[in-house]
Amino acid sequence: MNTNPADNGEFGQRQAAPGPIVPKTASEALRPEAGTPPPKRSRASRGQFVVFMNFVISSIMLVVLAAGVALYFGKQEFNEPGPSANADTFPVKPNSGVQDIADQLERRGLISDARIFRLGVRAYGNDSALKAGEYEIKPRASMHDIMELLKSGKSVMYSLTIPEGLTVEQALQRIADQSGLAGDMPATVPPEGSLATDTLRFTRGATRQQMVDKLLADQEKLVDDVWQRRAPDLPLANVEDFVILASIVEKETGKGDERSRVAAVFLNRLAKGMRLQSDPTIIYGLFGGKGKPADRPIYQSDIKKPTPYNTYLINGLPPTPIANPGRASLEAVANPSKTDDLYFVADGTGGHVFAATLAEHNENVARYRALQKKQAEDAAKADDAKVDGQTDAPVEGGDGDAGAAQ
Fold this sequence. Notes:
Layout: H1 5-15, H2 26-30, H3 43-79, E1 88-92, H4 98-107, H5 114-123, E2 133-137, H6 143-152, E3 157-161, H7 168-177, E4 199-203, H8 208-228, H9 239-252, H10 259-272, H11 279-287, H12 300-303, H13 327-334, E5 343-346, E6 352-355, H14 358-382
Antiparallel strand pairs: 1-2, 3-4, 5-6
Helix pairs in contact: 4-5, 8-13, 9-10, 9-13, 10-13
C-alpha cells in the first residue's frame, strides 16, 4: 500500500484536466451535466426511415378513411328505398345461403347491389337467420326491409275455398287448379259428401294431398260432433243417411234461416213414407259430380227419367250424398224445426213458402206460377226479339219444389 502523500498528490494532478480553473455560480454548480450523446446516424439512413414511416401512416389513414366512407355510403344504400317500383313475390328455397339470396334479389331487380346486401346481413348478424318461404316484397323496399322480412318468416299465405254444396269432383278440381299447391292429386277419389266446406290457408309448397287429407279429417270430425248432438227419434238409420239428407238440404236452399224448416219437410216425409221429390237429386242422377250446366233447366221429361237418385221415382233416400254439406245443413238435419210441413215451393225471391197440406201447397204453386207468367210477360215486352215455345218445357217451380208433382 502506497502511503506516500507525494505520490498521491502527483496521481491526483495527473487525473485532473489541465488548464485554468473557472469559477461557477451557485446555480451553475447545481445544474446537472449533460449525459453521453447517442451515436449519430447517417443522414441518408435517417431520411429513408422517415419516408417509410410517413408512407405507412399515410396508407393506414387512407385505408381507414376509405373504409369509413364505404361504410357510410354502404349503410346509406342498405337503408334507402330499393329500385323496384312494383310489388313482387320472392321465393327463398330451403338451405339457401346469403350470397345466393342476394344474387337472386339483384337479378330480380329488388335490390341494387348484392354485395351490399350480403355485407349488411352479415353486419347485423343475420347470416343464418333468413328463413325459407315465399315473401311479398313491397314497392321500393330497402335492403334492410327485405332482410327483416326474410328474417321474420312471414311467407305469403294462399287460400283454398271449398264452398258449401260443391260435389267432391268439383272440390277436387279446385284443389287441382290451385297453382300455389304442389304434388299430384290423390289416386283415389274420396266418397261424395266427405270433404269439409271450408277455407284453408297455406304457404306455397303445401301439397294437394295434404289439402285433401285436411278436408277429409275436418269433415269426419264435424259430422261426428253434430251427429252426437242430434235430436232423438230422427227417422234416419245411421250417420250415412244423416249426411245424405244434409247434402239434399244443402242443395235445396242457400238461406240460413230456412234450412231447418226444409230439413223438417224431408224428415216429415221420410217418417210418413212419402217420396222426397227433390229436384237436386234429379240433377245429380243426370249429371253426377260434374253438376248441371248453368244454362240447362230441368225439363218435365227429366222427372220421369229413372236413376238411383231420382227421388220422384224412388222411395227414401238416394244411395249417396249429392254434394258436400256444410255445418249449417248438418245442424239443420240434426235439429230440425218442429213443424208439420210436408211441402215447399219457391217464392220467386230466392226463398220458399211452406205448407202442411197438399191443398195449401197447390195454392202456393199457383201463386208462384202466376208470378212466373207475369215475369215472362214483362221480359217479352222488354225484348221483342225473344223466341218462345219449347217442345220439352222446363219444370215450373222446379227450384226446390218438394211435392209439386203430387
